Amino acid sequence: MDDRRRLLQQKGCIVWITGLSGSGKSTVAFAMDRILNSMAKVSYVLDGDKIREGLCKDLGFSAEDRRENIRRVGETAALFADAGLIAVVSFISPYKRDRDIVRELVPTGNFIEVFMDVPLEVCEERDAKGLYKLARQGVIKAFTGIDDPYEKPVNPEIVIKAVNEHGACYSPDEMARIIIHHLSEKGFLSDRVDGWNLPQNPGFVSRQDPLVGPNPPELRSYPGEAEAGVSSKAGLSRSGETSKFYGRGPDRNFATELASAGEMSGTPPTSAWSGQQAWMDAL
Ligand SMILES: Nc1ncnc2c1ncn2[C@@H]1O[C@H](COP(=O)(O)OS(=O)(=O)O)[C@@H](OP(=O)(O)O)[C@H]1O
Ligand SMILES: Nc1ncnc2c1ncn2[C@@H]1O[C@H](COP(=O)(O)OP(=O)(O)O)[C@@H](O)[C@H]1O
């Protein structure tokens, strides 16, 4: 397990995004995937729409089928996490018990529940697929939020609201950054345990984490997060607190790091790549 963490320079986990249809689950999941990949972090999105075309195409939307849907996806995500990937899962997953069962499949702390706290009226107004209209007309039965229940998470790691305190919508990247910031704070984007480097393979030079930087890390704050209107168990932006993260210098901040990661999309970041190059040179 430590070998894999050292190899990938990250710790596997499940980011479980739950919320009503139209709450933005897929949007934030794919934005996360894109940003993480541009940071040379390995993630994979398991999205409801796609999985229901394959792995779960035999399932419908009865309570029993939804439970089986979440069970299969949960087991798959747990395997990905065990392999060291950041498994990003975007399913309505309306039942608390089913989500809690998945939480138990991975080591404590490695399940990050993200609640898209978007009111039904907003999702219905968006109605990107026209399904709410059909549900209201009775054409689609047992539609979540209309005539089928959605059980809100009780104590999710992260809550993303529809709008910030100024009433503005979040962009996909803003929502993704909130989650990536949490992953960084919890050490999922690093090979370090408790802030210290693991022993290195001979010839393997650890690459710098674009967010976390070298040891010993210095505590820094990202002012923008305080206005993000989100909360997390990590204390991220809860009740307007200034959030903290570990960075590498006064001239860099979280937003800058992510922005530059975005700009590098498709090109391996130099600092991230140097370790792999050194390792290959040593062969
Ligand atoms: N009855 C009913 N209720 C809810 N959703 C429905 C239903 N019928 C079809 N759809 C479409 O299926 C998508 C949800 O699939 P999920 O696998 O995420 O659902 S669940 O977790 O098993 O409840 C959901 O996609 P998203 O909008 O991406 O959430 C809908 O487009
Ligand atoms: N933060 C946001 N603000 C405004 N619209 C959004 C936001 N996030 C997503 N959307 C839009 O809402 C619709 C549903 O988003 P989607 O990600 O497909 O939701 P879900 O996967 O939860 O069904 C899409 O048209 C998307 O562009």
UniProtKB/TrEMBL annotation:
<dbReference type="Pfam" id="PF01583">
    <property type="entry name" value="APS_kinase"/>
</dbReference>
<dbReference type="InterPro" id="IPR059117">
    <property type="entry name" value="APS_kinase_dom"/>
</dbReference>
<comment type="function">
    <text>Catalyzes the synthesis of activated sulfate.</text>
</comment>
<keyword id="KW-0067">ATP-binding</keyword>
<protein>
    <recommendedName>
        <fullName>Adenylyl-sulfate kinase</fullName>
        <ecNumber>2.7.1.25</ecNumber>
    </recommendedName>
</protein>
<dbReference type="GO" id="GO:0005524">
    <property type="term" value="F:ATP binding"/>
</dbReference>
<keyword id="KW-0418">Kinase</keyword>
<dbReference type="InterPro" id="IPR002891">
    <property type="entry name" value="APS"/>
</dbReference>
<feature type="compositionally biased region" description="Polar residues">
    <location>
        <begin position="267"/>
        <end position="277"/>
    </location>
</feature>
<feature type="region of interest" description="Disordered">
    <location>
        <begin position="204"/>
        <end position="283"/>
    </location>
</feature>
<comment type="pathway">
    <text>Sulfur metabolism; hydrogen sulfide biosynthesis; sulfite from sulfate: step 2/3.</text>
</comment>
<keyword id="KW-0808">Transferase</keyword>
<dbReference type="GO" id="GO:0070814">
    <property type="term" value="P:hydrogen sulfide biosynthetic process"/>
</dbReference>
<dbReference type="GO" id="GO:0000103">
    <property type="term" value="P:sulfate assimilation"/>
</dbReference>
<dbReference type="InterPro" id="IPR027417">
    <property type="entry name" value="P-loop_NTPase"/>
</dbReference>
<feature type="domain" description="APS kinase">
    <location>
        <begin position="11"/>
        <end position="161"/>
    </location>
</feature>
<comment type="similarity">
    <text>Belongs to the APS kinase family.</text>
</comment>
<dbReference type="GO" id="GO:0004020">
    <property type="term" value="F:adenylylsulfate kinase activity"/>
</dbReference>
<keyword id="KW-0547">Nucleotide-binding</keyword>
